[in-house]
Amino acid sequence: MGDAAVLALAPPFQWQHEFCCRAKRDFYPEHEWNAVGILRGDNLLREVFFETAAPRTANLVLGLEIAMGVGLLVGARLARKGRFRQHAWCQSAIVLLNLAVVVVMMIPSFRVHVLPRIPAKLGKAYYGLATTHGAVGTVTELAGLYILLSAGTNVLPEKLRITRYKMWMRTVLVLWWVVLLFGLATYTRWYVPHLFRK
Hints:
Blueprint: H1 3-9, H2 12-27, H3 30-40, H4 43-50, H5 56-80, H6 84-113, H7 125-152, H8 165-191
Helix pairs in contact: 5-6, 5-8, 6-7, 7-8
C-alpha cells in the first residue's frame, strides 16, 4: 500500500501529523531543520542569555551598569518633580559608584585584553566595540564628574562652573545610555559564543 493510501486511511489527527513530519523531512535539509527547530523552542534563548562564557565579575559589572542607567532615569524624574535634593544625591551617588567600577574593574580588564592590540586590531569587533565603549564612557564619566563638582561643590572657580545645567544633564544622560548600549554589545561579543565567532 502506497504512502497516499496510508495517509487516506489514517485518522485526521494522525494524517496531519504524518504529513507535517514528511514535509519537514522533504523540504528542509537536516541542518536547516535543526536550526528551525531550535528557533521554535527556547533553546536558543536559553543559550544566548544564560549559557555565557562571562566570569562572575563581568556579570556583576553588567548588572551594576544597567541598575545605574535605570537609577539615572529615576534621578531625572525626581528633578522633573522638583525634588532637587533627592535628585542631586541620586545622580552623585551613581556617578561616584560608576567611577569606582571603572577604576577597579573596567580599566584593568581593558589594559589586559584590549590595549595591547590597539591600534592593530581595531577593525575587529572584539576590540573595536570595547575601545569605543571605553572612549565614550570616559568622556561621559568626566562630564558627570564635572557636573557634580560644578553643581554640588565650590571646588571649581566661578568662571569654570556651568550655568546651563539642564542641557548638560540631559546630554550626559543620553551619552550614559549610549555607553550602556556599547557595554551590552561588548559583553555580547566577548561572552556569548553562540552569536559570534572569535
